């Protein structure tokens, strides 16, 4: 019996927030069997799962979304479009051929990134100055801005050769292994599927020989 697919069972195999966001579809390759972000309320559940935004902010956004359902739906659709944009962008990065990236893709990425970073603020907390976000309970795109900051951090702080795309499902992940040889988002799921396919083909070729 297959495991029920929902936010609670969604694996966090990306190794970074922006990759967790990209990986909220069952697969980017072949048939996508499940959309994990099926409503704005579910998006906020995902925010809780990956521990972004305060509980107070999530509650305020949820209350505003309930009262403005049409706006919430539009915000969710925009985030899904950006999710696809992020997938194609980081897929190109993972291919390690940045010169092949389309100018239009890079332009769209830079536009959303600029919008996201414009919402960053610094506040004084005790004796420290800390990064924070604009306090706006009506900004339904706030989760997206946090995701874009993560994308910025990945591109500026991480080795781009460690950004990988799963050869089975297309999920994007950061390879933390020492030898940087990880090929799948998860050796338990996609890794096992790939090995099973190879075994089947090898056995089939042997029987036909």
Largest sheet: 2 strands, antiparallel
What is the general shape? globular
Measure the end-to-end span. Answer: 35 Å
DSSP strand content: 5-15%
Structural class comes to mainly alpha
Q: Overall pLDDT, averaged?
A: 89
Order of helices and strands: HHHHHEEHEEH
Tell me what you see in this structure:
The protein is mainly alpha-helical. The protein is built from 7 helices and 4 strands, in the order H-H-H-H-H-E-E-H-E-E-H. The protein has helices spanning 17-22, 40-49, 55-67, 69-94, 103-117, 142-157, 190-208; strands at 120-125, 128-133, 163-165, 172-174. Strands 1-2 form a two-stranded antiparallel ribbon. Helix 2 packs antiparallel against helix 3 and helix 5 crosses helix 6. The longest helix has 26 residues, at 69-94. The radius of gyration is 19 Å and the shape is globular. The two termini are 35 Å apart.
Produce a short descriptive summary.
This protein is mostly helical and 209 residues long.
Q: How do the strands and helices of this protein lay out in sequence?
A:
Elements: H1 17-22, H2 40-49, H3 55-67, H4 69-94, H5 103-117, E1 120-125, E2 128-133, H6 142-157, E3 163-165, E4 172-174, H7 190-208
Antiparallel strand pairs: 1-2, 3-4
Helix pairs in contact: 2-3, 3-4, 4-5, 5-6
């Amino acid at each position: 019996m297959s495991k029920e697919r929902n936010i609670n069972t969604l694996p966090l195999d990306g190794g970074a927030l922006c990759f967790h966001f990209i990986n909220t579809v069952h697969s980017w390759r072949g048939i996508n069997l499940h959309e994990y972000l099926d409503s704005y309320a579910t998006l906020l559940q995902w925010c809780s799962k990956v521990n972004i935004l305060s509980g107070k902010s999530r509650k305020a956004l949820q209350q505003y979304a309930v009262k403005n359902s049409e706006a919430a739906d539009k915000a969710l659709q925009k985030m899904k479009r950006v999710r696809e944009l992020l997938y194609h962008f980081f897929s190109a990065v993972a291919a390690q051929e940045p010169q092949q990236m389309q100018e239009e893709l890079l332009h769209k990425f830079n536009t959303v990134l600029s919008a996201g970073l414009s919402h960053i603020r610094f506040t004084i907390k005790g004796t420290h100055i800390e990064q924070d976000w604009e306090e706006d309970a009506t900004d339904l795109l706030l989760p997206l801005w946090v995701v874009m900051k993560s994308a910025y951090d990945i591109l500026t702080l991480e080795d781009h050769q460690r950004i990988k795309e799963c050869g089975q499902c297309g999920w994007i992940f950061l390879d933390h292994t020492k030898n940087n040889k990880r090929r799948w988002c998860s050796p338990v799921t996609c890794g096992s599927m790939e090995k099973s396919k190879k075994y089947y083909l090898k056995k089939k070729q042997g029987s036909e020989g």
